[in-house]
Amino acid sequence: MTDHYSVLSVRENASTQEIKRAFRDKAKRLHPDIAGNGAEEEMRKLLAAYEVLSDRDRRYEYDRAYSRFIKKVDFNYRSWLRERSDDPASRAKLVFFELLHLEEDAAIAVWDRSGALDFPMDRYLDREDWMDCAYLLAEELDKRDRCYEAFELLAMLVREERRQPYFKHFMDDITGFLKELVRLRLRPRVGDELWIDCMETLLGLGFPPRDEARWLRSIAETFLKMGDEAAARSVIGEALRRDPGLPNAGRIRDRLRV
Asked: In angstroms, rounded to a whole number, what is the distance separating the alpha carbons of residues 73 and 173?
């Protein structure tokens, strides 16, 4: 079984300097001039391991999952889980196991076969494992342009975090990831009605009023595009109540003759 520590060939208690040195040494050996063009996958795993273990907060969260989930056992845990394909709890654990072992495509394939967003992994994993798994899964789905599914997972995590904190050390990373996804990648991949649904989801997650005002403005713009001026008028008014100085709100009001 592989994991971030074995990818870098370092001990679990390795210092940051040891991790950096191990990364440099392995990266040199995997350079195309030395290893040829067949080492891209190894280099990808090396970079992924280094990005986590060289960052204090991300390593802290990874170590919590590592200590709970990556065990040295005397049998093939992956095979054992795969053999229990009729058991949804085993499938949920397999998704998490594959993600932690950098087998992202395999993890997503199991998740898809289990129903994707309709697969209630929170029923079958401990709360901490479920939240770690959902975050890792969202990262991989976003990389594959499956932005809406990544959005839904991240929104679910933020909602649960507001209810009972868990991601104490890098919640800002999660909310930043969600905002970046919405700002840069989600809109071209969903239709108007689904976009409005996404914006309304954001409005229920406890973000600051200025953020909510921007999302309300986007809803108003979408209603205008759909020809529903009454709804747009109501929504832009609500946006301005949250942020009277909201940029571009005047342009919308002019179009609505508010």
From this structure: 33
CB 202 within 8 A of CB 182: yes
Q: What percent of the chain has pLDDT over 90?
A: 53
Taking the alpha carbons at both ends of the chain, their separation in whole angstroms is 63
In angstroms, the Cα distances linking 177 to 14, 150, 153, 154, 201 are 28, 10, 11, 8, 16
Q: Which CATH number fits domain 1-54: 3.40.190.10, 3.30.420.40, 1.10.287.110, 3.40.120.10?
A: 1.10.287.110
pTM value is 0.74
Task: Identify the helix (H) or strand (E) that includes residue 179.
Answer: helix 171-181
Q: How far apart are CA 14 and CA 19, in angstroms?
A: 7
Neighbouring C-beta atoms of residue 206, cutoff 10 Å? 14
Q: Assess whether pLDDT exceeds 50 at residue 1.
A: no
Tell me the pLDDT tens digit for each residue of 185-233.
999 999 999 999 999 999 999 999 999 999 999 999 999 999 999 999 9
Residues with Cβ within 8 Å of 232's Cβ and at least 6 positions away in sequence, in order, are 220, 221, 223, 224, 252, 256
Q: Looking at the predicted structure, is the pLDDT value of residue 26 above 90?
A: no
Name the phi and psi angles at 247, rounded to 5. -60, 145
Q: What is the pLDDT of residue 69?
A: 63
Domain positions in the chain: 1-54
Apex 250 CA angle, 248 and 252, nearest 5: 80
Could you give phi then psi for residue 141, rounded to 5 degrees? -65, -40
pLDDT at 37: 63
